[in-house]
Amino acid sequence: MDSNTVVITGGVVKEFKKITDDFGVFRVVSNSRRSKEPLYIDVKIAGRLVAICEEYVRKGTQVHVVGRLELRTRRYEEKDMNINDYSIFADSLDFSNSRVQSF
Fold it and tell me: Could you tell me if residue 101 is inside a domain?
């Protein structure tokens, strides 16, 4: 596994949105036993996974994502603060509650 590889399992809370023919995004929530706060994270999809997500990613679907963690920092001048947004650029997906296997 690459040093920047992350794995997250959670439920889809924002359905897949196809942005271009070969790129899209959806959001998952993961609840940890160690944290009281749920983790919401965007999952970016490219290439052959786009068609798979169009067909199978729906709100409530359980998904296991393996990919690379990405960080984007945005500056909010009005509040004089930086906000960090984390996302995962997916390398593979596994749908836990459907007939779909790993991709």
Answer: no
**pLDDT by residue for the chain (103 residues), tens digit each?**
556 899 999 999 999 999 999 999 999 998 877 777 888 999 999 999 999 999 999 999 999 999 999 988 888 778 888 877 889 999 999 986 555 455 4
CA–CA distance, 48 with 30 (Å, rounded to integer): 25
How many domains does one find in the chain? 1
User: Which CATH number do you get for residue 59?
Assistant: 2.40.50.140
pTM of the predicted model over 0.70: yes
Partners of 82 in the β-ladder: 75
In a domain, 31, yes or no: yes
Q: What sections of 1-103 are H helices per DSSP?
A: 49-56
Residues spanned by the domain of 26: 5-95
